[in-house]
Specification:
Blueprint lengths: L17 H6 L20 H13 L4 H14 L5 H10 L4 H8 L7 H4 L2 H11 L12
Keywords: Chaperone, Mitochondrion
Organism: Postia placenta MAD-698-R-SB12
Family: Belongs to the SDHAF2 family.
Amino acid sequence: MSTSPRRAADPWLLPNTPEHLANTTTPADAPPPPAPLPRPGESVETMRARLVYQSRKRGTLESDLLLSTFAKEQLGVMDEAELKEFDKLMDEPDWDIYYWATNKRTPPERWASSPLLEKLRVHVKNEGKVVRRMPEL
């Protein structure tokens, strides 16, 4: 008869193990994002200004830094369709955006082939090693 205590599962999985990878996949049954607020008659300039603000005031510092620096560099050159796609991305939860952009989690089908998400991933790689700070509002 063994009297050794039973060990609990390790909550901190080693990176790139099968168990860890299984936990980093966005579940297929994840709920869709909430319906965005209707903004009838919003001009492109107003949308761009709103998105600059929203990218800075997300709620988590990691997402704030990632999205606000991306917005500062990209929103000025985006056309209306790209701005609307960015607006939809902003409706997603902070940590989901962060994990999708950093390639730590597979995005759901609705974002799997998004050119915008790919641009965000390139921004996140920061291959130029730019020191990034939160932009001024």
